Amino acid sequence: MAVYRGEGDVGTFGTGPFSSDGALDFLDELTERPPQQRAEALRQMLGYVLANRDLLWREYFPDEVVAAAALVAATLPGGEHLQHRLTQVSDEPDPVILPEPVPDLATSALEALHFVAGPGGPWHQGWTTEADQAEAQQTINDLTAILQAAHS
C-alpha cells in the first residue's frame, strides 16, 4: 500500500485495480445488487463518467473508474487474474461480481480508463515513489491491453 496524495485527498491506496477504499466500496455497492443488474449498473456508471467528466473528484474518483474497468476486463479473455484478485479482496463467499462476460462494455470501460488514467491523468498523480508510479502504470497497461483486445 502507498500513500496517495491528490486533489485534497490523502489516504492509503494500492496500485492495483481493487486496492483502495474507494474501489472496495464500489465493489460492495455493486455486490448489493442482484447479479443480473450489475452489468447495467456498470454501464450506467461508465456512461455517467464519460458524460460528466467535469464531476471527477466530486461525484466519482479515479480509483472507482479503474475498478469498474477492471470488473469489465475480468470477464474477458486475459482477465482471469482479475477474477482471482476479486476473490482475495471480497468478503462475499462467491465474489464473482458479473455473472457473465460483458464485452459490449469494453469500449466505454476503455474510454473511461483513458480519461482517468491516460498519460498525466489523475490516477497517475500523487504516487509518492517511483516504484508505486511504475506499479500503477503497469495496472493500467494490463487493463488497457485486455480491454483493447476485446474492443478490436
Automatic annotation (TrEMBL):
Q: Which Pfam families match?
A: DUF4259
Q: Which InterPro entries match?
A: DUF4259
The organism's place on the tree of life at top rank: Bacteria
> Know the name of this protein?
DUF4259 domain-containing protein
